[in-house]
Structure formats: C-alpha cells, structure tokens
Amino acid sequence: MIDELLTLQSLAEFPVLVLLVGVITQITKRFIDWILLKFFDIIFMPTEIISYVISLLLLLSISYASGSFTDKTTQELFGVILLDLINALIVSMAANKGYERITDKETLISKIQKKK
C-alpha cells in the first residue's frame, strides 16, 4: 500500500502537483533564502518565484520519466517544454493563492531585495 503512495501517474495529476509544490516550497524556502543571501547577496526572494522553479523542475522530471523527451523532433521537444513552462505557472499559482497574486499592485520583481 505505501509503495503506491506516489506513482508517476499520480504525480502527473494537478492536485498532487499543487500539494507537492506547496510542501516542498515550505520545507526548502529558508534554505534557499540562505543560499541566495550567502552566494548572491539577495536578502529576500518571493515565494512565488521559488515555487515556480520547483513546479517547473517537477514537471520537467515527470516529462522525462514518462519518456516525453525520447525519440522526439526538435519541434515536439519545444512543445513539451513550452507546455511544462505553462503548466508550471498554473501549478505555482494554485499553490500560492494565484488570484490574490494577480490582483496585487506590487510586481514580483519589485519584491526581490538585494543586500546593500
């Protein structure tokens, strides 16, 4: 029973991806902030950007594991990667209260704070 908790088929489903992105983001946010401060002098990175990168990595990994990158033409690979980029945006927005972020007056880029 426990060996079928997370399968490749369940990982490809939207609610599971949203849950995983939210959990991984919560667990790794402080560590990523520490790395960004130590090596790049970035004091604060918005959680939305971190969750987008995490969801993109998850979706690209799922595409690779399911064989979406093997024996494809360049156009087909471009299509798979483009769909993963768009789907990562949707998953990240769902994991981070997307509607509130869209209607917010501040942009994400303006929230990034570099060390002076």
Report the portion of residues in β strands: under 5%
CA-to-CA gap between the ends? 52 Å
How many domain regions?
A: 1
What global shape is seen?
Answer: globular
**How is the main sheet built?**
2 strands, antiparallel
Rg, please? 16 Å
Strand order of the largest sheet: 1-2
Order of helices and strands: HHEHHHHE
Topology, number of strands: 2
What would you say about this model in short?
The protein has one domain (13-113). The protein has helices at residues 8-11, 14-40, 47-65, 74-95, 98-103, 108-111; strands at residues 42-44, 113-114. The protein is mostly helical.
Question: How would you describe the overall organization of this protein?
Answer:
The chain has about 120 residues and is mainly alpha-helical. It has one domain (about 15-115). About 70% of the residues lie in helices and about 5% in strands. The chain has helices at about 10, 15-40, 45-65, 75-95, 100-105, 110, and strands at about 40-45, 115. A two-stranded antiparallel ribbon has the order 1-2. The longest helix has 27 residues, at about 15-40. It is globular.
